[in-house]
Write a structure and sequence with these properties.
The complex is a heterodimer of chains A (about 230) and B (about 220). Chain A has a single domain, classed as Sandwich (Jelly Rolls), CATH 2.60.120.10. In chain A, about 45% of the residues are buried. Chain A is of the alpha+beta class and about 230 residues long. The longest helix of chain A has 20 residues. In chain A, α1 crosses α3 and α2 packs across α3. Chain B has nine helices and no strands. Chain B has a domain of about 110 residues: Rna Polymerase Sigma Factor, Chain: A (Orthogonal Bundle), CATH 1.10.1740. Chain B is globular and about 50 Å long. Classes of the chains: A alpha+beta (about 230), B mainly alpha (about 220). The complex binds zinc ion (ZN). Zinc ion (ZN) binds next to α3 of chain A. Chain A: This is Putative transcriptional regulator.
């Protein structure tokens, strides 16, 4: 499996700097789970962050700061990861067993749990959604969309940054064809209309940092249902 | 658009093209030449040894040395990102305690100490001040299996890579250094940076792309 569509350098930088909210960070983390080359880029961007940490103008800490921290050093050290075997991870396996979809990246399990027990919300014929990160909790949102073969996601534009990561199936939009692991990134003003183009449901993660703007009669009806 | 030509060896030209602000926080002291780079790398290796001394021997004097180097930087970083003095003090405690407790997770082959501490401070800030999580790919996810083979340059330590990167950042054109600085220091979204600088979002993104490529070219495939 080869990932063909990647986030921009600017998005990888923002992720490394801690500048993305939880929703968009989840999208990037999902893509990174499929993409060694972007994982490398994030490590490089974090090293830039390390340089920035070295170069910052220091601000003197309070005189008692060192004593305070020394007084608390007695806490048990955290063991090396490698020394403790990881506990078994039930979620991806059970998700794979109980549905026909390939396993989700583990980073999603804290948000999705077992996909087979998920309560998908009806949005429109052939389109269902599952909220993962709500705007109310932070700056941006993330949700899963499940789109039946041949269905088109409502035509929409948006004010901020929107990203989509394909988890199973595929879709095609103006930028090309997106399959598992691919990330589509759209700036504001981009209009796009993805269509699920394979014989199976397309499950994708979609995140925004600003409300979506739907245009046209049906989309206007759908906007409140999508809850963006 | 011409993204490359803003750098100039002549300060006068630089000033003429970019009206001088009160100060230029994005201009870094440039350390030129191999010797300067080597000394930065040596300093980095010494910091790495301090973390290893904590990991192996719970060495308190090593911790004190690390604290003296990093605590004022972590505080400066957090305050630059908008934390109040008291918040920054508390987070410094939190970050330095994490350094002590997680010292055995530090891998000098993978990152410089400053990079490791940067990521700890970033994550604690998001946790505590923003009350959000910052999802990361799970290292134990079977999807992550099959990492590419280490390249010829992978023998470089994190500190050596860092020294190269510092050199690359010091030589960025001012307009590229500026967007990098704002991304890391000011906790600004790219759309906010565009607004602050009065340039289109696309220009912010293209400057970041150029800056990132320059940095990547300098470190080669040391991260492969
Ligand atoms: Zn990628």
């Amino acid at each position: 499996m080869t990932v063909k569509h990647h986030p921009s350098e600017a998005v990888l930088f923002a992720y490394a700097a801690g500048g993305l909210g939880e929703g968009l960070s989840l999208l990037v983390a999902a893509h990174l789970s499929f993409c060694p080359s972007c994982r490398r880029s994030v490590a490089e961007a974090e090293a830039v962050g390390g340089v920035m940490m070295e170069e910052i103008a220091p601000v003197a800490v309070r005189p008692d700061s060192l004593d305070r921290v020394l007084a608390n050093l007695d806490g048990a050290p955290v063991p090396n990861r490698a020394a403790t075997p990881a506990p078994p991870r039930p979620t991806p396996a059970s998700a794979a067993r109980s549905t026909d979809t390939p396993p989700l990246p583990s980073v999603l399990s804290a948000y999705v749990g077992d996909l087979s027990g998920a309560r998908w919300q009806w949005v429109a014929p052939g389109v269902r959604q599952l909220d993962l990160v709500h705007r109310a909790q932070g700056r941006d949102s993330a949700k899963l969309l499940r789109i039946a073969p041949g269905r088109v996601l409502p035509h929409h534009g948006h004010a901020g940054l929107e990203m989509t990561v394909v988890l199973s199936g595929s879709f095609t939009d103006e930028q090309g064809r997106f399959t598992r692991g691919d990330l589509a990134e759209l700036d504001s003003d981009a209009q796009h209309q993805p269509i699920a183009d394979s014989g199976e449901d397309c499950i994708c993660l979609i995140g925004t940092d600003a409300p979506l703007r739907f245009s046209g009669l049906v989309p206007r009806m759908m906007a409140p249902m999508l809850g963006f | 658009m011409d993204e490359q030509c803003h750098q100039s060896a002549t300060p006068g030209i630089l000033v003429a093209r970019n009206p001088p602000p009160m100060h230029r926080p994005w201009r870094f002291a440039r350390r030129t030449g191999d010797r300067a780079m080597t000394s930065v790398a040596v300093e980095g290796e010494a910091l790495a040894d301090l973390v290893l001394a904590i990991a192996q021997r719970r060495d308190q004097s090593a911790f004190v040395a690390l604290f003296e180097h990093f605590a004022p930087r972590v505080k400066g970083f957090l305050m630059r990102q908008g934390a109040a003095d008291t918040e920054a003090e508390d987070l410094v405690q939190d970050v330095m305690l994490t350094v002590w407790r997680k010292a055995s997770q530090f891998d000098p082959a993978k990152a410089a100490v400053s990079t490791w501490i940067f990521t700890i401070a970033r994550n604690r800030r998001i946790d505590v001040l923003r009350r959000e999580r910052r999802p990361e790919p799970d290292a134990d996810d079977p999807l992550l299996a099959g990492e590419p083979e280490p390249s010829a340059e992978a023998h470089l330590s994190g500190a050596q890579v860092q020294a190269r990167m510092r050199e690359a950042i010091a030589t960025l054109p001012a307009d590229q250094a500026q967007v990098v600085t704002l991304s890391f220091y000011e906790d600004m979204a790219h759309s906010e940076i565009a607004e602050r600088l009065g340039i289109p979002l696309g220009t912010v993104k293209s400057r970041l792309r150029l800056a990132f490529r320059k940095v990547k070219a300098q470190v080669g495939d040391a991260f492969a």
